[in-house]
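re the bet — no i am not wrong, look at it urself. input seq straight from the record:
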Amino acid sequence: WNQVLPGLIATGVITNADIETLARYCTMYEQFLFCLAEIRAGRDQIELKHPETGELLNIKSTPAGLNSHKLAASMLRIEQEFGLTPSARSGIVAKKIDKIEDGIDPRIFG
């Protein structure tokens, strides 16, 4: 939130109507970081072994492994909407604003 919001305000890309979407993005980002930590710690797969022989039968992804891909895809869509990717920025025409929009709750933007 604190990393993304100032740039969005400065370029005029965000309005009051976008606050819920940005909040959802921040929640997904936090979840993605948790999944990433699990993956880096080696907790992204479970080995299923035969109970008697110990033979490896299958390898399954953990929820962290599966969710990281879903979260990354969902976050990318929001990043594109807000112009947070290089290709999205090339197509954005943003207006420069000198002050915060009237009617925006000052608690949101500090």
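see?? The two ends are 12 Å apart (CA to CA). told u. also The chain has five helices and two strands. so pay up
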